[in-house]
Amino acid sequence: MSDENRVTVDKYPDDPPPTRQSRMKALDTLLSLLKRQDNVQLIRNCCLTLHNFSAENELAFRSREATHTLMIAAIMYREDSTVRTQATRLCCHSLAALDPWHKRKIGQYTGDQVHGALRMQHSIALCLSLVNYELEREILSEEEQPDTNTIEACWTFLWNVTDETPENSELVARDGLELLMRSLASFPDSIPVHRNTMGLVTNIAEVRHLRSKLITSGLLQVMIGLIQHDDLEVSYNVCGTLCHILAEGVEYWESQGLSLETREECSSKISSVVLSWPLEKERGINYRSLKPLISLLQPELPSAVHIWAAWALLSLCSNASNLMGPMHQHYIKLFKKEGGEAAADLLVNNGNTVVKEIVERLAQTVKTNVT
């Protein structure tokens, strides 16, 4: 069936719109076809048609099954670039409206597939297998380059599925850091790969007992080299991850075999680059909770950590950085609700001059923008 003959939900605008019940039945049928058919053109058409379904109102109610089925389709038909790309992008789309509880379930679900050993793996393991396939393909063929679209979508999926979900972060930290390092080495100039992998690493770093894995994997030295990255989102996430590690203290740093000279270099670079960032610069970073940032305002932490956390909070609460809408009001309310004012007040009386200036500006922003 050619694309021009493919019937979509909106093909005949004069017909009455389908009911939600009929749309969910159609969704279930498509997922069933993805599981049981071995016709690549049919699999392509199923993936393309699934893009007509709403992430919030429809796919969210089949998220576990949809992501698992789509990841298996991407692996089973990995030689077909259309299926790989569409299936992995749909997995990302399926996560768009999910809360941490539902994301945790995705990390646990193994489904009822009929594809042998694949059915025993959860979506995170399947996604990492697909990344490995793309990287191995680069090694085996000098002429054929890895599929950048698939790699980017896989790391986007892993970034999103680990957001505020420590259980999923642990799965990636256990099995995925070596693949992450290889991806960075294979795509040294790819901003999307850098952005997605460093966003994922930030989620891992927010889980305290996983921070040592970022050090022992060799990733810390790579991140120090990315602090001054040209892309603000990459640099922001790298600095955030390093700040969580710096917050563990000097003894922890030394216990991991890291020198104090490296710690000073890291702190100095973070302070310098953060103070160069413009508040009005757009960036696609969102938070469900500000507690990870507020926790970094404790007076005993290094000034570089204070500078990054205070700038992050100021940029979220300031109207200048929210050019697409009044999200700053949402973050101001969240900042107040989660104890940000008390933490900021304490730091004003204990921080250095630069930190005080940022925190005082943050406090003033919160005070003057409350509705």
Please render the helix and strand layout as text.
Blueprint: H1 20-36, H2 40-50, H3 63-76, H4 81-95, H5 100-108, H6 123-140, H7 148-161, H8 166-175, H9 177-186, H10 191-205, H11 211-216, H12 219-226, H13 232-246, H14 250-255, H15 260-274, H16 291-294, H17 303-317, H18 327-337, H19 340-348, H20 353-369
Helix pairs in contact: 1-2, 2-4, 3-4, 3-5, 3-6, 4-7, 6-7, 6-9, 7-10, 10-13, 12-13, 13-15, 13-17, 15-17, 17-18, 17-20, 19-20
The low-confidence runs, each spanning 5 or more residues with pLDDT under 50, are 1-9
Average pLDDT reading: 87
Number of strands: 0
Structural class: mainly alpha
Query: What distance separates the N and C termini?
Result: 55 Å
β content, as a range? under 5%
Count of runs of 4 or more consecutive helical residues = 20
User: SSE order in H/E notation?
Assistant: HHHHHHHHHHHHHHHHHHHH
Radius of gyration: 23 Å
Query: Main beta sheet, described?
Result: none
Given the C-alpha coordinates, what overall shape results?
globular
Query: What percentage of residues falls in helices of 4 or more residues?
Result: 55-70%
